[in-house]
Amino acid sequence: MRSAVTLAVAYLLLILQSTVLELAPMRMATPSLGLLVVLHVGLSSKWTISSAAVVAFVTGYLFDLVSGAPQGVHAFVFVLMAVCARLLTTRVAVQGIVLGAATSFVASLLASALVVIVRAQVAPEGGYGGLRQAPVEALLTGIVGPLVLGLFRRIDGKVDSARSRVGLQRGPRAFGDPVRR
Amino acid sequence: MTASKRLREAAVVGGTLLAAIIALRMSAKNPGEMSALDRGILRLVSPAQSAMSFVARGITGVAGRYMELTHVRAENETLVRENKKLRTELIEMRRLAEESGRYQRLLGLRDVTPAETIAARVIAVDASPYFRVARVEIDHGEGTVRRGMPVLTPEGVVGRINRVAGGSSDVMLLVDPRSAIDVLVPRTGGRGILRGKSGENGYRCSIEYLARGEPAREGDAVVTSGLGGAFPRNLAVGHVTKVIPGAVGLYQDVEVTPDVDFGRLADVLVVVAPPPAPDPEAGSHHQPARGLMVYR
After folding, report:
1. How does pLDDT run across A30-53, given as a tens digit for each residue?
2. pTM to 2 decimals?
3. Is residue A172 part of a domain?
4. Is B7 on the interface with A (CB under 8 A)?
5. Of B14, B81, B183, B206, which is least surrounded by CB within 10 A?
6. CATH number of B116-275
7. Do B23 and A18 touch (CB under 8 A)?
8. For the packed helices B3-29 and A96-122, what is the interaxial angle rounded to 10 degrees?
């Protein structure tokens, strides 16, 4: 249920990214909304790594289709980013606006670098260019990151409430998750 | 987390990575090719993209039009302000042109009037409905203007000075019931005394003592006779607008409408010195004043 809702929202965000933001005045870069979905599922302890990887893969694949990128580029990178995010949660509790923004910013930079590297493998003629936009994209992702992460936390909370009402709450409770009594 | 569960988790993660790599390899091999699944997904995505794009373009279009409208509004406000300014200037120019025309006509009258005159500006007319009086302002030093002096415009006789107070004077208009001017109907040669009619809404006069033997007709011109010495001879006064029939006695009952529009009085001439005496050696008994208002 949670995966389906998350993927539906991810789908909307990707459509939004591919259309609305392309029409925005600043066309040189757009925040990577798909990456924020992946970051959320990777960072949240409510998601198992396997479900996070699946959501990341689907989101990435969808983004490949929507953006016209070679199939698999974003799917691969997003799965890697989900794994990285999960590894990060073992060291740092990503909470609050500042940390959320900083994580989004760094993750965007890293994802951009990975995309360029993977693209260079798949389509060598493209080379390693295009990273000039990465800082701006990362900045924009950092700005909208806390908002999108907050949105997904709320969605997770709604879905969890429904599950807990029928006694189906599961998954490990992590630092920062609300304590249920 | 049990080992088997960990293994399963790792397998799923590895599987997704593998799936991504397979997709990568396939797209690297056949860059333009799309699987049936991809095409299906795109069929689902495209309408949503199209709808979202339509909405986005609508919003940006509205926003763009709003920006344009804002620009147009600002431009419109500038043009309206400019238009108002130009209209004000135009009105001022027209007023100046009209004033200039009045001065020119006044100067023309001054040139042809065989008497010494000074110009005066009308500052009030008919302050009281019971007394037909205009107030004029004269920049000519005190003592120059005295009671009884005639006041003229290019259209005709206005009246005479009734009261002098500093730089301004009251002019008793010829339509005031107290006014009395010796006039002549040139067509018949009949003479009479022009008096203002009291209680009239408009500006009307009547001629008293106009002999019945010299019958006036509607449209007849009325001019000053020059008798009494105050008004020069032959200055236009007005026209006969009504001859009341059936009146008995020695005199006719005649109504006269002045040639001067007292409602639009602006600048006038005050005759400060009577015309010079006629030269007996010139062969003419009297040299009439000539000008726009002079009856011929």
Report:
1. 788 889 999 998 888 888 888 889
2. 0.49
3. no
4. no
5. B81
6. 2.40.10.350
7. no
8. 50
